[in-house]
UniProtKB/TrEMBL annotation:
Residues 528-556 have a biased composition (Low complexity). It comes from the Bacteria. It comes from Pseudothermotoga hypogea. This is Transglutaminase-like domain-containing protein. Residues 528-558 are annotated as: Disordered.
Length: 664
């Protein structure tokens, strides 16, 4: 089912929604389907959440379970469903779904095929039944374990599953049925497609197949078999006719659902505004007597300009008005992060020159210095923030304009999203893992430092007519960290640029520009004040956020505090808002500390260092409940008898804030 149960986009970015800092949670999915002799399927499945807290978090975010199914799976997008019923089962922390799948199983090359999805394992099979197991890591803390039982019609044999294609196939004995045929044909099309994403539309594996351009549905309402069904598509002058999709037999009361993933010419990137394009679908079929029937369907759609972005992939008639409905395409923004663009590379060279040329991806302090140089260089060259009304809040059916990094550099201005994309592109260009955080009304950049700590940056701190005087880099980091703490479950996307592009969300090919374009646009380095030959080397400073990640200062200072004692308090997960108890038993000797930490029921030993009023603690925590271990890094500031700061769980996207006070 094209990874039917690689579900919960929210869970994919969800960090522990309860209690401990990090734990492995298993979301169980039990699916039971029955395939009939015409290729239809009745299927029910149950998602079972590991805790009531996580279940209630999901339910409160999606009180309408139909929105949950539509937004958090590709199932309803790639298949044609009828008689769907969805409900919450509070007693069992479960979501229940029952639905009929039209044309789930089709006949091709003499065998019946069902697109189950890649990566499953066929663990048991008879002529009447097949059982599959599928395990997916939804995030670093959640695993989705799926068992699926498929009941087959009588007369089946030679069951096979191909993990590479995801197709489950079998032979089925049946008699040919002669008689009149009557085809009920419907073609669903995306009313708008994005020229910026022309590569995505041609790859069925991207986002589990959700980005088809056309869905052709043929139902045989006659009394005889439809045979040799052939379907082909053409998208204006931007594609040639597609290879024919061929289906051997469509039984009476059977159906075929065929999806179109066009190979689109890069010429679409020349479009600057939406342009009408005719999508043609031609099809033909025969009855058992050999009589041929054929027709052509023409649907007019809009091809958006190369800078226009359609924020939702949910059909307009199905939208509920919820933010996640209206901005479900947010992960595709990764295609605008053109870090391999020669224009971006030239600008990165200027930033590297200003920062002193150190490898940004080698040490935290070098990465921070590089991003600070980027921010300061943007201010020096007049890059400023501007925003339209309702941006990332109200859905715009005609798409919203989004700039590529080269456009921001040319115009020296951009919205919060444009500037976040620029900073993410520069980060990716120097091998710093970069993320876009998209939330109602706003977007900003998060950089993952070499140690695994995070460096969020609020790019709207850049000056301009909207905000006036620019904020400092340290203030920009502090503002972004505060925004991380305000994220609401179900109302944000964290877009992993590198991961999305590896999955096929690739940037478009953009026109070649002169190699001197950055200089031609007037970019310069600040006047040298004793730094490198190309410009002054910015002083590496620790962003003093109080609620943000505080990487090591570039110059350690003399130890002036004594932390020996017991500290008790709380922590707060910045993503989910959940809180828990935190304790430290600290022994200090000079500038080093060691001891034991407790986070709810988890505990572990730690070591650390003290520098001035700053303390960094690295704790290896053990979870007795789940039998796992994980490493937490605390960065705090000592204020009297209290310590407050941030924590991150190494190797995950889990982060948050903490504050403790001395009790002994």
């Amino acid at each position: 089912m094209k990874k039917l149960l690689l579900v919960l986009l929210i869970v994919m970015v969800l960090t522990s929604a309860f209690g401990q800092f990090a734990r492995i949670n298993t979301i169980r999915v039990i699916a039971d389907g029955t395939i009939d002799a015409q290729g239809g399927m009745k299927i029910s499945f149950r998602w079972v959440f590991p805790t009531n807290a996580l279940y209630m978090q999901v339910k409160s975010t999606f009180p309408n379970p139909y929105v949950l199914l539509r937004n958090l799976t590709t199932f309803s997008s790639i298949f044609e469903l009828t008689n769907t019923k969805i409900s919450y089962d509070d007693a069992k922390n479960s979501i229940l779904v029952d639905t009929d799948v039209i044309g789930a199983v089709v006949n091709r090359k003499g065998r019946w095929e069902f697109n189950l999805g890649k990566g499953a394992e066929l663990v048991h099979a008879t002529d009447q039944m097949a059982i599959f197991v599928l395990v997916n890591a939804a995030s670093s803390e959640e695993v989705i374990f799926t068992t699926m039982k498929l009941n087959l019609p009588s007369g089946c044999s030679e069951l096979k599953y191909d993990p590479a294609s995801g197709v489950f196939s079998f032979n089925m004995k049946r008699k040919n049925v002669s008689g009149s045929v009557s085809a009920d044909v419907n073609a669903k099309v995306k009313p708008r497609i994005m020229s910026a994403l022309y590569k995505v539309y041609g790859m069925p594996d991207v986002m589990d197949g959700a980005y088809w351009v056309a869905k052709f549905i043929l139902m045989n309402k006659g009394k005889g078999d439809i045979v040799d069904l052939r379907i082909s598509y053409k998208l204006g002058d931007y594609t040639s006719w597609s290879p024919e999709s061929v289906y051997d037999v469509v039984p009476p009361n059977g159906a075929v659902v065929d999806l179109y993933y066009p190979i689109i010419s890069s010429n679409v990137t020349q479009l600057r505004s939406q342009t009408p394009v005719d999508l043609q679908i031609k099809y033909s079929y025969k009855d058992r007597s050999g009589k041929t029937y054929s027709d052509t369907i023409i649907k007019r759609i809009q091809m958006l300009g190369v800078n226009q972005f359609e924020f939702s992939n949910v059909p307009e008639e199905e939208r509920t008005g919820s933010w996640i409905d209206n901005f479900s395409n947010s992960p595709l923004l990764a295609a605008f992060v053109t870090y391999l663009d020669d224009v971006v590379k030239s600008f990165v060279g200027l930033v590297s020159q200003y920062s002193g040329g150190a490898g940004a991806a080698l040490k935290d302090k070098d990465a921070i210095a590089f991003m600070k140089s980027l921010y300061d260089l943007a201010i020096h060259n007049g890059i400023s923030y501007q925003t339209p009304s309702g941006f990332l809040v109200e859905y715009a059916s005609l798409g919203q304009d989004v700039k590529y990094p080269r456009d921001v550099l040319r115009d020296k201005a951009g919205t919060c999203l444009d500037l976040a994309i620029l900073f993410a592109a520069v980060g990716q260009a120097v091998s710093l893992k970069s993320y876009l955080v998209v939330m109602p009304g706003h977007a900003f950049t998060v950089i993952e430092l070499p140690s695994g700590d995070i460096l969020p940056i609020e790019t709207t701190g850049l000056g301009g007519p909207v905000v006036g005087k620019s904020a400092t880099f340290e203030q920009a980091v502090e503002m972004a960290m505060e925004l991380l703490g305000k994220l609401e479950f179900g109302k944000f996307f964290i877009v992993d640029i590198g991961e999305m592009q590896r999955k096929g969300v690739l940037p478009p090919e953009l026109p070649q520009l002169p190699s001197t374009i950055i200089k031609d646009w007037g970019y310069t380095l600040p006047r040298a004040t004793g730094g490198t030959a190309g410009g002054s080397t910015p002083q590496t400073t620790t962003p003093q956020t109080g609620t943000g990640t505080q990487p090591r200062p570039s110059q350690p200072s003399t130890t002036v505090v004594n932390l020996t004692g017991v500290f008790e308090g709380t922590y707060r997960n910045s993503i989910t808002g959940q809180q828990g108890t935190l304790e430290f038993y600290i022994e200090q000797s000079g500038s080093t500390v060691k001891g034991t930490a407790w986070a709810d029921q988890d505990m572990g030993d730690f070591t650390g260092t003290v520098s001035g009023n700053n303390v960094k603690i690295t704790a290896k925590m053990e979870s007795s409940a789940y039998g796992t271990s994980y490493v937490v890094v605390f960065n705090g500031t000592v204020q009297g008898n209290a310590i407050q700061g941030t924590y991150t769980v190494q190797g995950t996207n889990v982060s948050g804030t903490f504050q403790v006070k001395r009790t002994q």
